[in-house]
Amino acid sequence: MKASYRNIFFFIGMALLGVMLCTLGMPWSEIWTNVCHAGYWLAFNIALWAVIYLMNAASWYAIINDSTHAHVSFTHIYSLTISGYVLNYVTPLGLLGGEPYRIMELTPHVGRAKATSSVILYSMMHVFSHFWFWLLAVILFVTVYPVDWGTGILLGTIAAASLLVIYFFMKGYRNGMVVKVFRILSHIPYVNRWSQRFHERNAETLQRIDTQIAALHTQRKRTFYLSLGLELLARIVSSIEIYILMRILTPQATIIDSILIMAFSSLFSNLMFFMPMQIGAREGSIALVSDRLHLTAGYGLFTGLLCRVRELCWIVIGLLLIKVKGKLHG
Predict the structure, then answer these.
(1) What is the DSSP string of 95-138?
(2) Within its chain, how far is the Cα of 155 from the centroid?
C-alpha cells in the first residue's frame, strides 16, 4: 500500500479516536478512579487481548496460507489483524474501515483476488462465530437458570435467528455468495446502479472470489473448522476479561455469568453497529444483562467502562502499527 493511503487511514483513525475521547460521557476523574480500582487487573486484560488477537490472526492465517498461494508471515497477519479491528472499532458501520485496509495491505503479497477473498472469508468466519457463540449462550442460559415466559420468548427468538443465519452462511460457504450479494444489491434503490457497474467491471474477479469461498468449505474442511474453532475460542476467552472485572466487585460472579454477559452484550451492541465502538450501547447492554442475571447493574457499568479503557489502549496500539507497519511485517 502507498504511504499516502496508509497515512489517510492513520489520520482518520486518530481523528475518530479524538472524537471518542471527547464523548465518553463521564468525568475523567471518575474514569481514573475506576482504573485505579482495577489496578494491575486492567493491565492483565490488556495483555489478554494480545492473546485473543493472536487467535483471530491464527484463524485468518489458516485461510490465507494454502499450498497454491504465496506465503504470508504470521507477524504480518497479526499486525493487520490488530490494525484492521482498530479501524473497525473507530469507523461507523464497522467493516467500512478495517476490511479495505487489510485488502490493500495484503494485495502486494497474494494478489487482489486472493487478498479480497481471504479478507471476505475471514470476515464471514468472524461473524459466523458470533452466531454460534450466541446460540451456545442460549443453551447455557436455559441449562443453568430458570426461564420465565418473557425470557423464554427472547431466548427462543435469538436461537431461531442464529440458526437461520447459520443455515444461510453454510449455503454461502458451499456455493459462494459474493455474486449473489451484488445481484441482490442491483434491486435496491440508491445502490443498484453502482452495484451493477461494479459487477460488470469485476465479474471475473467476483466469480473467482466465490470459487475460493466455496473451495474453503468443500476442499479444505479441516482449515474451515480450524478457523471457525479459533474464532469461537477467542469469543469464549474474551469472557475472562468480564469475569476478572466482575470478581473485583463481587464474589458472586462466575465464569458462566461472564460468558452470558459477553455473549448477550455483544449481541445487543452489534445491533447498534452504526455507532463507532458502539458508544453507550455496550455499557448499557452489559448493565442490563448483569441485572437480568441478578447482579447489580452498577457492576455491569463498571465492567463496561474498563472494557472501553482497554479498547482505547488497543486502538492507540493499532494506529501506531499502521504508522510503523514496515517494522513488523516479515
Answers:
(1) HHHHHHHHHHHHHHHH-HHHHHHHHHHHHHHHHHHHHHHHHHHH
(2) 22
Distance CA 305, CA 99 (A): 27
Asked if 262 contacts 242 with a C-beta cutoff of 8 angstroms, the reply is: yes
| Concatenated DSSP letters of 290-306 | HHHTTS-HHHHHHHHHH
Residue 251: count of CB within 10 angstroms of its CB: 7
The C-alpha atoms of residue 38 and residue 15 are separated, in whole angstroms, by 28
Q: Which residue carries 465479474 as its cell? A: 203
The three grid cell numbers given for residue 224, joined into one nine-digit string: 474451515
| Per-residue confidence in pLDDT tens, the chain, 330 aa | 555 545 455 555 555 555 555 555 555 565 566 667 667 778 888 899 999 999 999 999 998 876 555 578 898 899 999 988 888 777 655 445 678 888 888 888 888 778 888 888 888 899 899 999 999 999 998 898 888 888 788 889 999 999 999 998 888 787 777 777 777 767 777 667 777 777 777 777 777 777 877 778 777 888 889 999 999 999 999 989 888 877 776 677 788 888 888 888 788 777 655 444 444 445 555 555 555 555 555 565 667 677 777 888 888 888 888 777 644 444
CA angle 194, 186, 189 (to 5 degrees): 80
CA distance linking residue 139 with residue 186, whole number of Å: 38
How far is residue 187 from each of residues 184, 203, 205, 308, measured CA to CA in Å? Answer: 6, 17, 21, 39
Q: What is the dihedral of CA 285, 291, 295, 301, to 10 degrees?
A: 40
Do the Cβ atoms of 74 and 54 come closer than 8 Å?
Answer: no
In whole angstroms, how far apart are CA 70 and each of 227, 261, 281? 19, 41, 41
3-state secondary structure 42-63: HHHHHHHHHHHHHHHHHHHHHH
Residue 90 sits at the vertex; the CA angle it makes with 284 and 131, to the nearest 5 degrees, is 60
Apex 45 CA angle, 291 and 302, nearest 5 = 30
**CA nearest 128: which of 48, 50, 222, 217?**
217
